[in-house]
Amino acid sequence: MPVPQHVLNWLYSVLTSEYQDVNRTYNDVAQALSGHPGLSPRTDVHTFIDGKSALLVHLSGTLPVVFRGATYRFPISVWVPHAYPREAPLVYVNPTEKMVVRPGQHVDPQGQVYHPYLAAWSRFWDKSTLFDFLAILTDVFAKEPPVISRPPQQSPQQGQSGTPPSQTRSPAPVSPAPPEIPRPPSHYSRQASDAPQPPPPPPKPVAEAPSPPSLPTGPPKLPPKPTSHAAPAPALATPPQIGSPPATPHAPIEQNVPNRSSRYDSAPPLPQQVQPPVPQHARPGHPEYMTTDPNWRPAVSHQQQPMPPIQPQQPAVRWDAVPPVPPQEREPHPPPPMQRVPPPNFLDEPVEALLPKPSFAPAPPIPPNPEKDALLRQLAKTLYLHREKSREQNESCMLGLQAQRTAMTVAYNRLNSERTGLSQVSALLSSNAQILRDALHNADAVIENSRQHPKPDIDELLVAPTVVANQLYALVAEERAIADIIFVLGRAVERGRISPAVFAKTTRSLAREWYLKKALVKKIGRGMGLDVTPRP
Length: 536
What we know:
Blueprint: H1 5-18, H2 22-35, E1 39-47, E2 53-67, E3 70-80, E4 90-93, E5 99-101, H3 116-119, H4 130-143, E6 147-149, H5 156-160, H6 186-193, E7 253-254, E8 299-300, H7 370-450, H8 458-461, H9 467-495, H10 500-528
Antiparallel strand pairs: 1-2, 2-3, 3-4, 5-6, 7-8
Helix pairs in contact: 1-2, 9-10
């Protein structure tokens, strides 16, 4: 269902104020409103658990859920936090005045909704949406309704008045909630005064005592005819009499009705006829008082044995100081199930005489349910097959897993040995690195100290190991110097710097000295064993 444009405009204007991811929040809320028309947006102040308050977008309304074939609208409210979608929304169940919260697996007594989808929202916030969670919540509520109808409050004056229970029942709420699974005692009294059709059977038997019968002002209706799966036990119980307490507080259930399938649809007892008192010896445990009348249908309850009618020809004796009733006041046969019977005159009798008296008779055994037994057998067989299949799969995987375990053990040992070797190498490298750092530190100190010393003479640095070698070094240097001088004098003559006479005189003296030095160099070289071959 499309959302009106003015609602979308208002929603976007509200989100732009304090919400962090405006576009994502706008898209998710609009999608939720479109998929669930029963929700309406507004802004409200929400108080968190730590006491802080914030103005949040609040989606309130009803969520339609199909429960047992009927559609119920459960009231919920969704609060969208400012950090949405990185924070999960807060979802609550808001019961009306005619509803109460039904705590369950996903709803606490305060109405807050919990679900694994919300718990994992912070980890998968980019994939989680409000629309998807509402769909999940619909499925959850279809299995576990979050609310139930509030039971009607009946005062003692109403219990003693002649108003039937159906007239004192509270009206249905706007969004009706499904009935509670454990049905209260008032549920059975309402069945007796409603339409003849029985309600759907409850999921499990709940033995509840009916409320005290009220004094009718008009002809009461007969209860519906629920059935029992098991035949009545042979034990007997005394019928309720005027001025005497009934044998059991439970409601009778007619037996021979084949069209009803539930043995838990019981109705409260209604007085049908005035019967004579039962003799003292006609008590439970005497088989001679069991009836054989084919027109009589015994009535049993959840914890009461079948009860035979009293034959009119039996003598009336005094029982518990109650005056006997003439036999002619008793009707020969009970009226048809759907007909009204004249109400007995209970106005002259005290109300306490009509109250049920607890019975200490043992409850009849619950008959076995063949469908349940068949389902249990089928379930056991299926579980056995699954277990055998799982065992075979586990056995087939054991060999591969053992091989993997062996390989992983070998690899683990190898890794441990390599780790030990690497630890030793790391220790050696650490010591070498420390030594290298110390050497570099010393070298830096030497370089820094050498910068402060004066530059030494080259002659002081080039010192031969022997005196002859020092003489050889000096002669070679002088020889090369004379050669350079002669070369320079030749260039000076060419340029006219000196005269040829000066050049000739100087050159002759230098050449004589050069020759002597070269001869001395060769002599010293031969003495030192050096190669004195002249260069080309």
